[in-house]
Structures are given as structure tokens and as C-alpha cells.
Amino acid sequence: MNLLTFDVEDWYHTNFPRTDFAGYDRREDHQGLALRLEDLLALCREKGVKATFFVLGRLLEKRPDLGERIVEEGHELALHGYEHDLLTEMSPDRFQEELEKALKAFRRITGAFPLGFRAPSWSVNGTNLWVLEILERYGFAYDSSLFPVKNFLYGFPEAPNHPFFPLLEGKVLRLLEIPVPVRRIGPLRLAYSGGIFFSLWPLWMIRLFSEATTDQGGPCLFYFHPWDLWKRSARQTRQLKARWINLHLGDTLDKFRRLLDAYPLGSIAGSLDALKEKAGVERIGGDSHEG
């Protein structure tokens, strides 16, 4: 079973320079996001697909109905941090403070503890592997924060690209790590399974890469944002001045629909036991402890 995941955040929750976005979170009622989420839930219902939705704790505070709708539709609700701040810029103490706030909002909706976590903008790398130790200590079953391709904002190219139990400083964590899959072609590592990469690659190549991943025994983890699949409004396009936005080549919704038709897809929670059974232990990082 391949894995379908969504990062639920608003269009301005970007970790690119934020000059244009100052104050948006205080003003927004997130109604546009709520409408897109409903469209996404309806599409998943139509296709008979369950997914994992990583949601910001701040959103769960302001719009608990978003989390409630995800749960009502039978999907897995997981955490995406509190704000959309980079964990590489946090201390362990601040991360725990943010995590506590996010967990409080999560429990108000579900009455339970989340199984999974994903860092904003994949912001776990060799400099802050203490994040994984904290997640294990809190009782998370899995993390999905490692992106084994380096770019100017994030990435941990030394990380494995298959599910594993991290070995840190001689200790094997009980936390299962589920990174983004990448394809190696010579010296290149190519991401393909979500976000801007899904927009850029043709579907036949995405299928080729994902089938190679599953042939090697790993699940293919797909990841999207609600705003990846529909064109942004004129207001959003004006605000998003960074050049990277122009790389989103139109509407990817049709390609996403064809992906849902091509593969059996499910939530991480639905495959967690099988993933744990197959996962080995991998040493990552050096001096990762909180200090």
C-alpha cells in the first residue's frame, strides 16, 4: 500500500521570506482553506481513499471544525507543528512549548494522542535530530519529517529514503521514521512524489519512479497541500512574489485524480504495523542530543 498524506496549512504559511504575509494569520478566518479541504475530502470519498492529514496546531485552535471534518470522514489526523516555523531555528525548549500547544488543540478534537508528526517544511536534518528524541519521549509512533534531497530551504541528503528506526548515539528509537522517497540516478537524487516536484514531472515518470520504489520494498509516500491541487486566487498570486510560485504549472488536479485511479493509496496509520515489521535500524547523524 502506498501512502497518501496532506499538509494542512494556509497558502501564506510558507517559510520563504514573509514580508508580504505579516499579520495574515491574525486576520484570516481560513475559509478559503476550509472550502479546499471540503473539495479534497469529497474527492477522497469519491475515490474511496483514506489519507493522513498533518494539521497545524494553530489551525486546530482557530478552526477545530477542520480537524473534526477530517476525523468524520474516517481519515487519520496527525500534527504538523503549531505554527509553521522551521524547527531548525528552534531550541529544544521552544519546540516542546510549541508541541504542547499543538497537542492541547489536537486532544480537544479527538480526545486522543496523535500517532504521527511532520515538521513544517521538512525542517529536521543532521543539526536537530533531537526533535526525534523528543517525539519519541512524548509517545509519537512515527515521524515523517526527513527529505533526503537538499535544496536552499530544507533537506537531509544523508538520510535513508525508506522507513527505518533511527539509531542515535547508540540508542535505537522506538519512533518509526518515514521519509520522502527519492530516486537515485547516478549522482542525482530526484524527489517526485509531492508538492512542486509532482507538478513538474509528467505522470508517467512519477509512476516509473514510484514503481521502482515499491519494487525495492518500500512504500511510496505521496504528499500534497490543499493549495497544490487548485489554482490560487488573484490575491494569493499577487502576494506570492517569490519566483518559485511560477513553477507551479497550472492546475495539477487532473494529474492527482489520475494518480488516485492508478494506485491503491491509504493512510500511514492504516499501514503502520506492516511498516514497522519491515523497517530496519539505520544510524543517522552524529551529536544529536539536546544540550
Essential attributes:
38% helix; alpha/beta
Describe it for me?
The chain is α/β, with parallel strands linked by helices. The protein has one domain (2-283): TIM Barrel. The chain is 38% helix and 16% strand. It has 11 helices and 13 strands. The protein has helices at 24-27, 31-47, 57-62, 64-72, 92-110, 130-138, 195-200, 203-215, 234-239, 253-262, 268-278, and strands at residues 2-8, 52-55, 76-79, 116-117, 142-143, 164-168, 171-172, 176-177, 182-185, 188-191, 221-224, 265-266, 280-283. Helix 6 (130-138) links the parallel strand 4 (116-117) and strand 5 (142-143). Helix 4 (64-72) packs across helix 5 (92-110). Residues 233-247 and 287-291 have low confidence and may be disordered.
Short description:
The protein has a single domain (2-283), classed as Glycoside hydrolase/deacetylase (TIM Barrel), CATH 3.20.20.370. It is 38% helix and 16% strand. The chain contains 11 helices and 13 strands.
